[in-house]
Amino acid sequence: MIQLTSSAALLGLAGCAGDSPDDTENGTEDGDGEELPDGVSESEFETGPVPEAYMRAMSLGGEQRNPDELSTKNEVTFSEYDEAEENAAHQPGRSCGNCADYIIDQNGDGYGACAEVEGYIDRADWCAVYEVLPEPSVPDGMTEDELATAEVPEGYRTADSQAGEARDPENLASHGEVNLTESVEAIADGDAAPGESCGTCAEFIPDQNGDTWGACAKVEGYIAVEDWCTLWEHVSEA
Ligand code: SF4
Ligand code: SF4
């Protein structure tokens, strides 16, 4: 089961891991060597249409995709992360998986979509209209230092993650134990693979109350969608 931002959507999911959808088993590749989802042509992969579940889905940053107002991949200098690193406009650690416009995998093929760009989008890709995820502000009555260990609001305590894992408030790791940090930093430092973030993680519990914070089925305290930790697992793996 996947939830997008604060809304729940029930979905069937199957395997994908690492820095691209490399566990898909159909074997057909596009011109850049990316494995195409089963039954999807190279042309569909590049320009769409994407499956219905993505058409008007919400992105990690809460933007609804409008299929009539999208850029082509060429228009936005879309590229894989390795190529992006050669682009002066790219900043280390930035990839689709921590972009406000990214729409996470809805159907288990390992790919997502984008609220700004047409076609299938891998979390490890990047383009020139990358948008930083909004940083949640410290909730009223709390200090920044308290966020890591604070009890999360009632709606999150035993909630299911976006891949359907129930949170057990008695069995959670601390931020320190799992090296919780910002995903952009973790990727730039080589600790995380491009595309890894809480937003693309199976354990993430998206915002339930509009404060833009989330929570985690494995880690205590407040968790932001742009964070990352060593327990990261792609939502498609669940
Ligand atoms: S980096 Fe570009 S293609 Fe990737 S999610 Fe963001 S806007 Fe879309
Ligand atoms: S990356 Fe870590 S903190 Fe973030 S949702 Fe996944 S398990 Fe939780």
Q: Report the average pLDDT across residues.
A: 89
CATH architecture of the largest domain: Irregular
Shape: globular
The share of residues in helices is 10-25%
Number of strands: 10
What is the strand arrangement across the widest sheet? 1-2
Structural class: little secondary structure
The CATH topology name of the largest domain reads High-Potential Iron-Sulfur Protein, Chain A
Unreliable stretches covering 5 or more consecutive residues: 1-20, 22-26
Distance between the termini: 8 Å
Give the CATH level 1 class of the largest domain: Few Secondary Structures
What's the SSE pattern? EEHHEHEEEHEHEEE
State the CATH superfamily name of the largest domain.
High potential iron-sulphur protein
Largest sheet: 2 strands, antiparallel
Domain module count: 2
Bound molecules: iron/sulfur cluster
Number of helical stretches of at least 4 residues: 5
> What's the Cα radius of gyration?
17 Å
Strand percentage:
5-15%
Notes on the structure:
The protein is mostly loops. The chain folds into two domains: 22-35 and 42-133, High-Potential Iron-Sulfur Protein, Chain A (Irregular); 145-238, High potential iron-sulphur protein (High-Potential Iron-Sulfur Protein, Chain A, Irregular). The chain has helices at residues 42-47, 52-55, 81-84, 154-157, 183-188; strands spanning 2-4, 7-9, 79-80, 102-103, 113-114, 125-126, 181-182, 204-205, 215-216, 227-228. The strands form five sheets. A two-stranded antiparallel ribbon has the order 1-2. A two-stranded antiparallel sheet has the order 3-6. Strands 4-5 form a two-stranded antiparallel sheet. It is globular. The protein starts with a strand and ends in a 10-residue tail after the last strand. Mean pLDDT is 89; it is low at 1-20 and 22-26. It binds iron/sulfur cluster (2 copies). One iron/sulfur cluster (SF4) is lined by residues 178, 180, 198, 201, 203-204, 216, 218-219, 223, 227-229, 231-232.
